[in-house]
Known about the structure:
By secondary structure, the protein is α+β, with helices and mostly antiparallel strands. Helices cover 31% and strands 23% of the residues. It has four helices and nine strands, in the order ααβββββββαβαβ.
Amino acid sequence: MLAMLVSIVLSVLLLFPVPGWAAEGEVFPDLDINDPVALQEGSRVLEEELKLAARPQTYLFIDLVSGVIQIKARGVDLHRIPIAAWTVTELPRLTGTFRLTARPPVNRRKIDPSATTEQEPISLSDMPTEYRLSFTPAMTMDVESAAEQGAMGWIHATSRKVWKRLRIWRQQLGGGQAPSEAPTISLTLSSEQAQSLAWSMVNGMPVIIRRPAEP
């Protein structure tokens, strides 16, 4: 009965705009309201986001269902980054709010102390295109670039994905994942969007994830 009530309330919320989302219309336009699992996930994510939107902060909403990363504040989209591909481990554990422990490293330019002219500040082009992020509670996010060109780049990217899949299969055959190992998300973005994401992130930034019904 409680689950049915939550589904009805969520359906009403999704049909009518709420403060912060008024300019966007429906919260999840791709939500199948006839799917109870999707409704439950949408309700969970909406509850988490309402808490974040109540504070003056930017946060990430990683929507694996729609294949997009949203940089948001007060529930309003500031920037959208399309996801070219993704893989996850331990999908059921990707609930709640995660916080970034450290922003991506910057490819800092060498400063010439003897230079007499003002040197250029750090810009978007100095951001990395591939990096690993750690969060608390324990979660790891690998951002990979889809711009690797040529046969060697394709082999490198494919081998990493195959290795991750083999590791998952080995863990499943061995009786499951070790409790000490954190869930992992691997996101493939364009090189420009990977740099844009790195530029936007700050230490302690909250992240919420919308999971698909099937991995």
